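in:
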């Protein structure tokens, strides 16, 4: 058993270190390259769907008003913090959310990646719709989600 483990370790060491070119542009931003290939754009369909899903969960468990995000427009990028000393790269975005009650509200959100966890693969959206955070988890007006 020890011989198998030793052989496996020697084989891994002999393969040499991985460099950014080995990953064909799919490496996380903070891993040897500082490109924004892993974090999606602020208006990507998966990001907008993540905002709607998060708001639906919040309404079902906290607000209990029967509201939903029906659309997001006026999407803009506020800042990008990537390639720094931290392991998580962030894209800060803002938009206006249209709600099912006909009202519009500002929404602030962060796209973070690589997602923290066992394998650190993918990205995550954290969002806050202003005026619909009754416990002020993100401070008044969603200020804590800012850059």
């Amino acid at each position: 058993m020890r011989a198998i483990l030793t052989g496996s370790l020697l084989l891994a060491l002999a393969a040499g270190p991985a460099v950014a070119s080995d990953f064909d542009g799919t490496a996380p931003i903070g891993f040897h390259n500082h490109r924004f290939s892993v974090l999606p754009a602020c208006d990507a369909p998966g990001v907008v769907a993540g905002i709607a899903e998060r708001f639906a969960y919040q309404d079902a468990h906290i607000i209990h008003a029967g509201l939903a995000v029906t659309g997001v427009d006026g999407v803009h990028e506020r800042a990008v913090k990537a390639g720094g000393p931290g392991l998580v790269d962030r894209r800060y975005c803002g938009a206006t959310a249209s709600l099912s009650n006909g009202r519009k509200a500002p929404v602030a959100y962060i796209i973070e990646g690589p997602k923290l966890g066992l394998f650190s693969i993918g990205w995550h959206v954290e969002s806050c719709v202003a005026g619909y955070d009754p416990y002020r988890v993100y401070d008044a007006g969603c200020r804590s989600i800012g850059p």
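note: Residues 28-145 form one domain.
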